[in-house]
Amino acid sequence: MESKINENNIIRYRPNPLKLEVLGDFYEMKRRLTAIVLGNLLFSFGVNAFYTPHMFLSGGIGGISIMIQYLTGISAGILVFILNLPLFLVGLRSLSKKFLFYAFISTIVQSLTMIVFRGIDEYISFDNSMLSAIVGGVLNGTAMGILFKNGCCQGGFDIVAAVMKKKYNMQIGSVLMMLNMFVVGIGSYLFGIDRGAYTLIAMYLSYSVLDKVQMSKGDLKAVYIASYKSPEIAKAITLEMSRGVTMLHSEGGWSRQEGYVLYLVVNSREVAILKRIVSRIDDGAFVGISELTEVHGRGFKKDEVD
């Protein structure tokens, strides 16, 4: 901290910008490394406990590695690391070096945890194939969501999906689902269509959970409110919900009366509160609610793949 004495001999302290930047970088690294360890632990546990006992397949580099393990017995953890290396070159042109650095660390952690958890199904597993697909899919989706939400990934097809998201604003889960269909198709041909079907169920759950976790506030809703009492409603929303409200000038198509249409973004848990506020002030107000897949800006977290 730096100090400064003013004319009244009162000592005031000013933070050192360099120290604050270093401290911020430390906490960012700690957060990301924690996400990498936690995400890959969940992923490797889910695959080894619920996928491999039933010879389920998987997508991406992990899926290719698992298929080779089924055929040759070579550990998927070792194969994950080897097969991931070329794909890092794909991301060098579009993604930030920081994102790729953490992706490389994540690949190493994934490789190690896959080796550590190999054989865990002897202690923890389900005989029911459908239950294994559901639990494994949710675990894997949660793992990937934790990684992407903290600006990390597992490498492999995740890097390709991040490139597609940045260039074309495509949902990560949707991109991965399309890319992995080819891998699952090959696996289904080699190991049977029934295993491929269970894998598709697990993958659908995984990418649905991924998109839910990866979004900054969960289920987001865009809300439009048209009322003759819009200023009062806006004030109540700001005070009671601590949400910003945009007031758009409007004119009635038939009445030609001028007024305001309110626009705001809330999460699904706040919708009921918002409806009560609007109904209390103007029970005849028009309220339109639609789903949002992504929001950036004040109060909503920014993606960290740039």
Count of DSSP strands: 6
Cα-to-Cα separation, first versus last residue: 32 Å
Globally, the shape reads elongated
Supply the number of helical segments: 10
**What does the oligomeric state look like here?**
single chain
The radius of gyration is 25 Å
Q: SS-based structural class?
A: alpha+beta
Task: Give the overall pLDDT as a whole number.
Answer: 81
- Topology as a string of helices (H) and strands (E): EEHHHHHHHHEHEEHE
Catalogue the unreliable spans: 1-5
| Largest sheet report | 4 strands, antiparallel
Approximately what portion of the residues adopt beta-strand conformation?
5-15%
Summarize the structure.
The chain has 306 residues and is α+β, with helices and mostly antiparallel strands.
Which features characterize this protein?
306 residues, alpha+beta, four-stranded antiparallel beta sheet, 6 strands, elongated, disordered N terminus
Task: Walk me through the structure.
- There is one protein chain.
- With 306 residues, the chain is of the alpha+beta class.
- The protein is 59% helix and 13% strand.
- It contains ten helices and six strands, in the order ββααααααααβαββαβ.
- It has helices spanning 17-51, 60-72, 76-91, 97-116, 129-149, 157-168, 172-191, 193-214, 230-241, 271-281, and strands at 2-5, 11-14, 220-227, 246-251, 258-267, 286-292.
- Strands 4-5-3-6 form a four-stranded antiparallel beta sheet, covered by helices on one side.
- Helix 1 (17-51) packs parallel to helix 4 (97-116), helix 3 runs antiparallel to helix 4 and helix 3 packs parallel to helix 6.
- The radius of gyration is 25 Å and the shape is elongated.
- The two termini are 32 Å apart.
